Amino acid sequence: MAITDWPLAERPRERLLKEGAAALSDAELLAIFLRVGVRGKSAVDMARDLMVQFGSLNALFAASRLECTQVKGLGDAKYAQLQAVLEMSRRALSEAMRERDALSSPAAVRDFLRLKLAVLPHEVFLTVFLDAQNRVLETEELFRGTLTQTSVYPREVVKRALAHNAAGVILAHNHPSGVAEPSQADRWLTDQLKAALALIDVKVLDHFVIAGSSVLSFTEQGLI
After folding, report:
1. CA-CA distance, 98 to 153, in Å (whole number)?
2. Residues 121/69, Cβ–Cβ less than 8 Å
3. Residues 1-7: what's their mean pLDDT?
4. How far is 154 from 73, CA to CA, in rounded Å?
5. Distance between CA 44 and CA 30 in Å, rounded?
6. Rounded to the nearest 10 degrees, how much is the dihedral formed by the CA atoms of 175, 106, 86, 30?
7. E-assigned strand segments in the chain
8. Residue 74: predicted pLDDT
9. SS3 call for 223
10. Per-residue pLDDT tens for 179-206?
11. Is the pLDDT of residue 208 over 60?
């Protein structure tokens, strides 16, 4: 049955307009993005199949162009649209962080870092540089590694902090394994970076570990 044959109250687009986007399931939101299905399947049916095939929205977002275009009903146009939506979301959250004290908008920081790092298949270490009022100066991906580890050099982090004349930093890295629990190496590295940055009067405000939809804060865990 086509979505146009559904009762108005059950159609995803109409529900979104009436109840808001948060009321919809992942599959329903994806169906609105798809707009149309394929022969024999509505957009909602197709969206549900995609959620089963990829397992989650994060996994779908992380899929390569080849993986997406091999799915019937998804082509280069849909892949490009999906990447554009993701990038617009990242930029909007980046603007939200820049417009005010990063510590007064922790949700924006978490959402930005999740969108930036959660979908990556390899480890990345990222640093958010802040001024004395905790406003974002710049966000940089400083190191990139493998599926399980990244080499991080405190000297390079210090150099970039000096280059931005930063007063504070927020550190972040992802765990492609899907486990947000910080390792002993993560804790040791954080201590090393705190000590190195303290020598130039730059404070480490937090260190986030991103694993899929989970975000762990060192500060909230009492680790900083």
Report:
1. 26
2. no
3. 56
4. 47
5. 8
6. 90
7. 124-130, 136-144, 168-174, 203-211, 214-217
8. 86
9. coil
10. 888 889 999 999 999 999 999 999 999 9
11. yes
Least Cα distance to 117 among 83, 90, 137 occurs for: 90
DSSP letter for each residue of 20-68: -GGGS-HHHHHHHHH---BTTB-HHHHHHHHHHHHSSHHHHHH--HHHH
What gap in Å lies between CA 50 and CA 222, rounded to an integer? 39
Q: Are 169 and 207 in contact (CB under 8 A)?
A: no
Output the six-digit token pair for 167: 């007063």
- Average pLDDT estimate for 171-177: 91
Contact of 49 with 55, CB cutoff 8 Å = no
Give the DSSP letter of residue 167.
Answer: S
Quick: pLDDT tens for 46-70. Answer: 899 998 988 888 788 878 899 888 8
Query: How sure is the predictor about 156, in pLDDT bands with cuts at 50, 70 and 90?
Result: very high
Pull the structure tokens for residue 92: 């909007």
Question: Cα separations (Å) of 193 from 120, 171, 204?
Answer: 24, 9, 8
Query: How many helical (H) and strand (E) elements, i.e. helices and strands, does the chain have?
Result: 9, 5
**Residue 163, number of CB atoms within 10 A of its CB:** 12
The structure tokens listed for 129 are: 């540089």
Contact 114, 210 (CB under 8 A): yes
